[in-house]
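Note to self: keep these together.
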Amino acid sequence: MKVKTLLVSQPKPAEGDKSPYLDLAKKCNVKIDFRPFIHIEGVSAQDFRKDKVNIAEYTAVIMTSRNAVDHYFRMCQEMRVTVPETMKYFCVSESTAFYLQKYVLYRKRKIFHGKQTVSDLMEVIKKHKQENFLLPCSDIAREEIADKLEAVKIKFTKAVMFRTVASDLSDLANVNYDILVFFTPAGIKSLFKNFPKFKQNNTRIACFGPTTAKAVKEAGLNLDIHAPNPKAPSMTMALEQYIIAANKSK
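Structure:
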């Protein structure tokens, strides 16, 4: 069946931004809409206190995302914790490290970062084993970094400071798309939370990453487009290949 419409479960690119999805829409003559299926909500200081995590006890903090940065400093403010200048920051990437400038004087802080992956960051963390690490995370945090920290016997504590919540999609109840594009298992959960009786019918499902693919299959859906794969390292490349094949005149 031909493809004319896609819904990407991510925020719409900012106006003026270069987006491979906008390029895809022009190249394949398809309509692409954007709608986040999930959003982030901060854990309240009151709820955080129940976990009995004393932020002031830690000498280093591991930042795996901008959300982690934002909610760490928000929680410090709400808990009236003054972050010492001696605090060490370990960031999963250089871009996350630079984002710290929103809250601290970058040049005057001890900031370390990996190249892009958790494995890269672990090599840096292992050189600072004496620190007491805090790991700000969401309620559905990937266990990869926790497992790696435990494997090398790093002293750390997970601190759930934000939650991933299903967005309200009720206005899409009577809207149909040829392809739905997902990037997280939480996106799949949001689909069924909003539409418990969802039937795939002729809708194609596209997803990125093995954990999302697993969630698609566990939900009883057919997975039509999966990236990355040997021929398509990106989601847009996988979509383009599928759309071109599907839209060929017969």
